[in-house]
Amino acid sequence: MRESLKTATWLAAAALMAILAAVTEPERATPEILSDQGELFYPAFRDPQQARVIEVIDYDEATATARPLKIEFRRGRWIVSSHHNYPVELGDRLVRHAAGLVDLRKEMVRSDSADDHAQFGVIDPLDTRVASLAGRGKRVTLRDERGDVLADYIFGKQVEGKPGYRYVRIPGRKRTYIVRTDVDPSARLADWVEPNLLRLSASALRRVVLHMYAIDETFGRVTRSETIALVRQEGGWSGAEQLPPGSLQPLLDTLERLRIVDVRPKPPTVAQDLRAGQVRLSLESALSFRQYGFFLTPQGRLLAKEGELSAETADGVVYVLRFGEVATSGGEVKSAGGRGENRYLMVTVSSDAARASKYGGDGSAGERRARELNQRFADWYYVINGADFEKLRPGRKGAAAAPRASPATAPPPAAAPPAPPGDASVPAAGPSQQQPQP
Q1: Residue 211 contacts residue 203 (beta carbons within 8 Å)
Q2: What does pTM read for this prediction?
Q3: Which one, of 176, 149, 178, 44, lies nearest residue 102 by Cα?
Q4: At 96, phi and psi to the nearest 5?
Q5: Is the pLDDT of residue 352 over 80?
Q6: Residue 273 has pLDDT above 80, yes or no
Q7: What is the CA 194 to chain-centroid distance, rounded?
Q8: C-alpha–C-alpha distance, residues 375 and 10, integer Å
Q9: For residues 100 and 41, is the Cβ–Cβ distance under 8 A?
Q10: DSSP SS3 for 50
């Protein structure tokens, strides 16, 4: 009797413990949905150095378009293959991103239903089967040198009330997780390129000349031309009084930190000519320039729709920045017709030993640097954002805006601005060259 009582007591206690376990640990009642909680997403991916490709696809709800960026290592250098194979110097940035994705864990399972994907912002930006434009996330994929996937994620919204946590899903699977991460690779080219396109220091600048003019595109002539020359002197810059108050320092700072938002390749023959310091008067070059807002005059001058800026450094390097047409690219589309739009930019570089001697600089070093820079700039039309364009073209003090003209209201033609020192000239058209139409 006593043994039966003991057995009954033990069974009752066991039943009570089972009930308590079910109440306090309900996840054991639904083990499938929580079976992988706390695990690594990609346990086989342990070495960040394996990453040789990163693809980032973001989604712009305003335009209902996916914005892709792909960077890969080819032939000993990193290129942005999604942007015309533009070369970039990544340093350890990709490795840092990869390292953050190596240890990414499934901190918590949030949902096992596809109906919740929009709520958490983890709809695949490339999924054409989903009608919703809202709730699409950012897809980040890492690949090795063979192209095999190392890691593939869809990053969603930040978790409300939990800084440093966000929703994540694996493409092709329904389950949504909460993860702790500060890794957020960008799909914008500007966030991967060096912030100093021109490779210059503002302290090395000795002379900056603003050539502000507008072009009557119908007749191929310059209108309303004016020039402001800024020369560094002891204690300041002469000519700065001609600029709007407070605009000089932003101009100098922008030259030092100029960053691009997109690129377009020049035709190979045009790029080859620019490396040689000249442009042939051919139909190909004329059409290419005109497409982006640059024009060849019958006299061989290369002009720009929104004027020019030339900058000279102490070692005799002369930069010429030409500002072209409005550019709706780089993920920052602006409305045409107003100020503040992205702009095409063309950069040429030369050296002037006499200038270097005047400034007390090293002309030989300047010549080498100009040659190296021109090799980089010759291949590309750049796109800069509207804010930087405005700082580089501030206009004259008291003027409402830098001079602009339309063909319908263009005043009588003005003389073309003088060519900047070392500016590329165009040889006379020979029998094998076509003269472009103005």
Answers
A1: no
A2: 0.82
A3: 44
A4: -65, -45
A5: yes
A6: yes
A7: 9
A8: 86
A9: no
A10: helix
